[in-house]
């Protein structure tokens, strides 16, 4: 019969039209500014800096080793090393970045900075609505904008962050053990030194006593 | 009560007469025309705005999307945003273009589209000019739109515009023939070219049923053929080859921008409403109510209800059917539509001279259905898919 296909198609579109008012599942559109699609864990776009604790300045993991700056293929990272030092994530005295800028208009989201960072301090972010009125200054992110807490990192990439946290816990335990051992060794050394000094003083006393009087003629 | 309803039906006529009562008799005809023209311009421009948003929302829903829903309540102020946008856009005219003709083309298109409304009865006693050759005037004005299309394509001095205009003209002229032939059956039956008398003839009832021409075999076939031809004539999907948004960028108005571009859309939609209104006038009984017990509802309400139904069907069809190929388009026009309309003339003649009864229905029904099946089979037979032979690459 001629026109059967047309009628079939018309019925299908009518079903779509009416169905879209009845079932919400048909409408797959997400109303963006109000609703957002759930983020998948592997999502990434631009790097950010992780800090521990509450103080972004004090807890910053970055030690300004500048490996990421050197490895960055489009050269979008700019770091200035500090003059003084502060304790890093494991408590060791390290330099910190006085300036840390990332130009996200240049960044190509390759994640190489994350791969090369030995301190687990630079990670990939998932924030995507970064549009700005100023395409130069507005897209150049400074240390204050880049520094984000470890809790935030845990919410966006839970598995990865848990591994990093475990690693840091181990490192901190090792460092604590090392400090403890060092302290013990120091104590032992001091005790030893004390006994040694005591013994030495005794022997020298004996020596002086044993020495002949006329020895000083040389 | 009855009198009041009658007043409601004639409210525009009464208001018009009341306003004109304050004017000197010399200027009355002129002012009456101006008033009616202004009303038609405003009403149908508003209908265009409503249709664009309905179309976008309807197509969205057909494709399981929301459609525009940001501007105003449920997105119904979207046409205002669109209008402001197209008004503030730069109006670019190509340097080698013929500036005068380039400017005149969209104006002529819109003007021609609006001129067709002069002979369309919107309600009882609501017509601008009751011409005794109204149908003829309507089709004459309709062909003016083709001239506007060709002016647009030619004056742009761009090969794309020109080719687009050629395609559009080829399509519009091809479908003009079945469009006019499909409407001739009504003229045969009613014996008049005046739209008012055609509607008056259909606005009578047997029991509760109206005497619309669509409720006869030849009328139904004529209506179907008229609507197909009208779709092609107003460049609507599935016959939107001249525009072809996804393939050729807007065809003959490639070189237009800003509000002139919007004017082409306005002209096309207004033309579409005009042909739909003509279909209503010829086959669907114009402003007459579908049942005799509903005649108390004002006549203009029925006219716009019918018009909106046809518009929504156009949107539905647009959301369903894919675009035709150029050869399919021409085959449909010349191998199906033309023979069908010519046979339909014969059917209308047989209907006229046979005595009323079941036999008349049977014969005329067969005269419509059998050729339709045979001709569509003829169209189908050509579609033999075969492996293409390449001369050199194999």
Rg from Cα of chain A: 33 Å
* Secondary-structure class of chain A: alpha+beta
At CATH level 2, the architecture of the domain at 47-169 in chain A is 2-Layer Sandwich
Average pLDDT metric of chain A:
86
Oligomer: heterodimer
Q: How much beta of chain B, percentage-wise?
A: under 5%
Report on this structure.
The complex is a heterodimer of chains A (218) and B (394). Chain A has 218 residues and is α+β, with helices and mostly antiparallel strands. Helices cover 44% and strands 13% of the residues of chain A. Chain A has a domain at 47-169: Alpha-Beta Plaits (2-Layer Sandwich). Chain A has seven helices and eight strands, in the order αβααββββαββαβαα. Chain A has a three-stranded mixed sheet. Chain A has a three-stranded antiparallel sheet with strand order 2-5-7. By secondary structure, chain B is an all-alpha fold. Chain B folds into two domains: 16-87; 89-380, no CATH class. Chain B has a two-stranded antiparallel ribbon. In chain B, helix 5 (99-115) packs antiparallel against helix 7 and helix 5 (99-115) packs parallel to helix 11. Chain B is globular and about 80 Å long. The mean pLDDT of chain B is 86. The A-B interface holds A 2-3, 6, 9-10, 12-14, 16-17, 19-21, 26-29, 31 and B 58, 61-66, 316-317, 319-321, 372-373, 376-377, 380.
Short description:
The complex is a heterodimer of chains A (218) and B (394). By secondary structure, chain A is of the alpha+beta class.
SSE order and pairing:
The complex is a heterodimer of chains A (218) and B (394).
Chain A: H1 4-22, E1 47-51, H2 56-59, H3 67-71, E2 77-81, E3 86-87, E4 93-94, E5 97-103, H4 112-116, E6 122-124, E7 140-141, H5 143-146, E8 147-149, H6 150-156, H7 158-210
Parallel strand pairs in A: 1-8
Antiparallel strand pairs in A: 1-6, 2-5, 3-4, 5-7
Helix pairs in contact in A: 6-7
Chain B: H1 2-9, H2 11-20, H3 28-62, H4 78-88, H5 99-115, H6 134-142, H7 144-155, H8 159-190, H9 195-202, E1 205-206, E2 209-210, H10 217-233, H11 258-283, H12 299-320, H13 326-353, H14 358-381
């Amino acid at each position: 019969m001629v026109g059967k296909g047309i009628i079939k198609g018309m019925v299908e579109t009518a079903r779509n039209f009416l169905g879209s008012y009845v079932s919400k599942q048909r409408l797959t559109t997400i109303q963006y500014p109000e609703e957002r699609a759930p983020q998948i864990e592997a999502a990434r776009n631009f790097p950010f800096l992780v800090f521990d604790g509450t103080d972004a300045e004090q807890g910053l993991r970055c030690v300004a080793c500048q490996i990421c700056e050197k490895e960055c293929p489009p050269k979008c990272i700019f770091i200035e090393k500090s003059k003084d030092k502060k304790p890093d994530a494991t408590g060791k005295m390290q330099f910190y970045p006085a300036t840390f800028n990332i130009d996200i208009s240049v960044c190509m989201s390759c994640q190489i900075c994350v791969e090369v960072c030995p301190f687990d301090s630079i990670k990939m972010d998932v924030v995507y609505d970064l549009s700005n009125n100023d395409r130069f200054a507005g897209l150049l992110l400074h240390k204050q904008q880049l520094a984000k807490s470890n809790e935030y990192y845990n919410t966006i990439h839970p598995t990865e962050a848990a591994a990093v946290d475990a690693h840091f816990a181990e490192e901190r335990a090792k460092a604590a053990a090392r400090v403890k051992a060092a302290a013990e060794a120091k104590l032992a050394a001091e005790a030893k030194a004390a006994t040694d000094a005591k013994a030495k003083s005794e022997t020298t006393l004996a020596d002086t006593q044993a020495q002949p009087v006329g020895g000083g003629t040389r | 009560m009855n009198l009041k309803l009658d007043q409601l039906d004639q409210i525009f006529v009464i208001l018009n007469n009341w306003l004109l009562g304050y004017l000197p008799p010399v200027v009355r005809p002129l002012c009456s025309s101006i008033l009616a023209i202004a009303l038609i311009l405003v009403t149908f421009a508003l209908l265009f705005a409503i249709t664009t948003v309905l179309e976008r929302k309807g197509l969205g829903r057909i494709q399981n999307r929301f459609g525009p829903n940001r501007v105003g309540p449920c997105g119904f102020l979207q046409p205002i945003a669109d209008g402001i946008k197209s008004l503030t856009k730069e109006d670019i005219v190509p340097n080698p273009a013929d500036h005068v003709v380039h400017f005149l083309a969209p104006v002529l298109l819109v003007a021609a589209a609006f001129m067709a409304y002069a002979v369309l009865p919107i309600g009882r006693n609501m017509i601008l000019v009751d011409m005794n050759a109204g149908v003829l005037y309507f089709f004459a004005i309709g062909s003016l739109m083709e001239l506007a299309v060709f002016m647009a394509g030619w004056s742009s001095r761009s090969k794309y515009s020109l080719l687009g205009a050629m395609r559009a003209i080829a399509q519009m002229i091809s479908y003009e023939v079945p469009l006019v032939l499909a409407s001739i059956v009504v003229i045969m039956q009613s014996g008049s070219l005046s739209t008012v008398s055609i509607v008056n003839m259909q606005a009578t009832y047997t029991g509760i049923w109206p005497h619309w021409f669509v409720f006869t075999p030849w009328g139904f076939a004529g209506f179907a053929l008229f609507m197909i031809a009208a779709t092609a004539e107003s460049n609507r999907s599935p016959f939107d080859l001249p525009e072809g948004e996804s393939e050729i960028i807007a065809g003959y108005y490639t070189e237009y921008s800003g509000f002139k571009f919007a004017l082409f859309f306005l002209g096309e939609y207004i033309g579409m409403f005009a042909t739909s209104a003509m279909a209503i006038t010829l086959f669907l009984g114009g402003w007459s109510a579908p049942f005799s017990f509903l005649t108390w509802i004002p006549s203009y309400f029925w006219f716009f209800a019918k018009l909106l139904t046809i518009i929504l069907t156009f949107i539905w069809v647009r959301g369903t059917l894919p675009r035709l190929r150029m050869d399919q388009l021409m085959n449909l026009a010349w191998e199906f539509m033309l023979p069908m309309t010519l046979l339909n003339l014969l059917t209308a003649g047989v209907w006229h001279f046979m005595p009323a009864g079941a036999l008349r229905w049977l014969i005329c029904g067969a005269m419509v259905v059998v050729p339709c099946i045979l001709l569509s089979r003829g169209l189908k037979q050509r579609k033999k898919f075969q492996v293409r032979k390449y001369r050199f690459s194999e």
